[in-house]
Specification:
With 448 residues, the chain is mainly alpha-helical. The protein has one domain: Hydantoin permease (Orthogonal Bundle). Helix content is 79%, strand content 0%. It has 18 helices and no strands.
């Protein structure tokens, strides 16, 4: 059997894991959640919960992955053998594969929109405007073209493998994403209205903290880390036995939450700059406009009002969003591709073409039945399935996998693990606290 690929460096893993976590939801989700939930008070609660919920759950996936050195189905099947029920691990693993694939099927559509707006801003820079209405309009042809381009980019990276594909492109794209973020922040903060946005974002009013804020921060912390669908488990399976997992997990958590915070320094001031230019930034109910409406209505209006410099700002912004989308999508595609290569013996390029094409077909079906399927697939995967899978992965580590086996898996790269505060707290935390917190957020989501 051929040796399994590994990340060649700690930096490569951190960039890949952070890239998986830092996607479209992080860049538009965290800032608008912040502005809609008490501003800076939400930021404080989010950072606390990033380490109290996201970090322990992340560690569960990394420990399983590094120990198993395999895809999610084989990994959970092996752990379930400790209680004599390998079928349960297979069932949860297959469910995770399905959910990751469905997430990518709608995510690639949204990412295609980012590419189309990037194309529009690129043509505007060179003075070509006759295609603007097609590039920014919602048509099947436009959606299909840019969905195809985005899926081709994702499949290209995955087909190259772990070191030449995932690691190489993550270490190239993540620094570029960071540079674009900082450059855009510097520019936006020089505009009228930015100061008002900064006050909302950085000056906490702790009287705003309430159960809804805490639950929203909990959900953002969990989902922004790309947890619950096996992406971090797969990335963990490519780690060397020499790596200290608790330390690596802390670095990834810090990197993800820090870039989410930095994104807020861009998005929230930009929203209030748009308000200064006369753009409506609140819905009829008084809440801040968020999600696609923010990205494709509020901010483009802001870019247009900036005059000649606006086309360059728009280009940088949609390039930033496209990079964030790609670094997340490659981790999602890796989940089913890793299963296919390991269980069927198919080459990575062949497995990538097969699985990527299947997901592409699902995306087309969603486009053809957009009103009926788009929201349905999003709710099934992110609202219902991701929390359930997150709870399951915590239960595997906390209840199903033998405690001594868990300790031995962590001791690879951390010889004195049993004497550390991490080991004294984490096993009980992931056994009791994490499932309860995720379940509480799940119930809150169901209640709307």
């Amino acid at each position: 059997m051929a040796s399994r690929e590994q990340f060649s460096s700690k930096t490569g893993f951190v960039m890949a894991a952070a890239g998986s976590a830092i996607g479209l939801g992080n860049i538009w989700g965290f800032p608008t959640q912040t502005a809609s939930n008490g501003g800076a008070a939400f930021v404080v609660v989010y950072f606390i919960l990033a380490y109290c919920l996201a970090y322990p759950a992340l560690m569960a996936e990394l420990v399983i992955g590094r120990h198993s050195k395999s895809n999610i189905v084989s990994a959970l099947k092996g752990i379930s053998g400790d209680v004599g029920q390998p079928w349960f691990g297979v069932a949860v693993g297959v469910y995770g594969i399905i959910v990751a694939s469905l997430i990518l099927s709608f995510y690639a559509i949204v990412a295609g929109w980012m590419l189309s707006y990037l194309g529009e801003s690129t043509l505007n820079i060179v003075g070509i405007t006759e295609y603007n209405s097609w590039l920014t309009g919602f048509s099947f042809d436009r959606n299909l073209v840019f969905l195809t381009i985005f899926m081709a980019l994702t499949m290209f990276v995955i087909s190259r493998g772990v070191t030449a594909g995932i690691e190489r492109w993550s270490t190239r794209l993540m620094p570029l994403l960071f540079v674009l973020l900082i450059a855009l922040i510097i520019y936006v903060l020089t505009q009228d209205g930015a100061k008002e946005g900064l006050k909302v974002y950085l000056l906490p009013d702790f009287s705003q903290i309430n159960p809804k804020l805490v639950l929203d921060a909990m959900g953002q912390a969990f989902f922004s880390m790309s947890l619950g669908v096996g992406t971090m488990l797969i990335y963990g399976s490519y780690l060397s036995e020499k790596e200290n997992l608790p330390k690596l997990g802390a670095i990834v958590t810090f990197t993800d939450s820090s870039i989410a915070f930095i994104a807020g320094l861009l998005i929230i001031p930009a929203i209030y700059v748009a308000k200064e230019y006369g753009t409506t930034i609140f819905t009829d109910s008084g809440s801040l406009i968020a999600g696609p409406d923010l990205i494709f209505q509020v901010l483009p209006t802001l870019f247009e009002s900036m005059g000649s410099v606006g086309v360059f700002v728009a280009f940088a912004f949609f390039l930033l969003m496209s990079i964030a989308a790609l670094t997340s999508s490659i981790s999602m595609l890796e989940v089913p591709v890793s299963l296919t290569t390991e269980e069927t013996g198919a080459s990575r390029p062949k497995a990538t073409l097969l699985i990527g094409s299947a997901i592409f077909v699902i995306s087309i079906v969603i486009l053809l039945n957009f009103d009926a399927l788009f929201g349905l697939v999003i709710n099934f995967t992110t609202v219902y399935s991701q929390p359930i899978l997150g709870i399951m992965l915590c239960l595997f580590v906390g209840w199903i996998w033998h405690r001594n086996h868990v300790l031995n898996a962590i001791k690879s790269g951390m010889n004195d693990a049993e004497n550390t505060m991490f080991w004294k707290v984490w096993p009980y935390y992931v056994r009791f606290i994490c499932p309860v917190l995720i379940l509480a957020n799940f119930v809150q989501s169901l209640r709307g």
